[in-house]
Specification:
Layout lengths: L7 E4 L5 E5 L6 E4 L2 H7 L3 E7 L3 E6 L2 E5 L4 E6 L5 E6 L4 E5 L11 E5 L21
Parallel strand pairs: 3-10
Antiparallel strand pairs: 1-2, 2-5, 3-4, 4-9, 6-7, 7-8, 8-9
């Protein structure tokens, strides 16, 4: 599927999880919290959409992990790709921007939890930088 305001396709590295998001996406928010750093290996870069807009076209290896009392994360149990994040009870799902097929047509909007970022990099862009959410 081509990526435009009507649909965005993506998936994991091995292809066990494929999805389509029907509708527009929010810009990317870079999260520097400890959980996102640990699940991504650097920082998490997420867009999001209403959960009802997310269609799983292949999900044989999708596994959900309850990472806290308030959140769960979806990943591929075969290749380990970090795919989704959602707050328990929320009607939106965050999607790891790197799993979208390109071109995405979206841009980075801001950084959050910069007070928790790792010490090996600096943030040199002009985007808003929030100490928390």
């Amino acid at each position: 599927m081509s990526t435009d305001s009507n649909g965005h396709a993506g998936g994991c590295l091995c292809g066990g999880v494929r999805y389509v998001i029907n509708g527009p996406l929010r810009g990317v928010i870079a999260c520097h919290c400890g959980q996102c750093r640990r699940t991504s290996g650097h920082y998490g870069a997420f867009t999001n959409a209403p959960s009802e807009s997310l269609e799983l076209t292949s999900s044989t290896s999708l596994t959900w992990y309850r990472s806290s009392s308030a959140a769960e994360r979806g990943f591929c149990s075969v290749c380990g790709s970090n795919l989704f994040w959602r707050q328990v009870g929320s009607d939106t799902t965050s999607v790891t921007a790197g799993t979208l097929d390109t071109p995405t047509g979206i841009e980075m909007e801001q950084h959050i939890f910069v007070a928790d970022k790792a010490d090996y990099y600096t943030l040199n862009d002009d985007l808003p930088k929030l100490p928390a959410w």
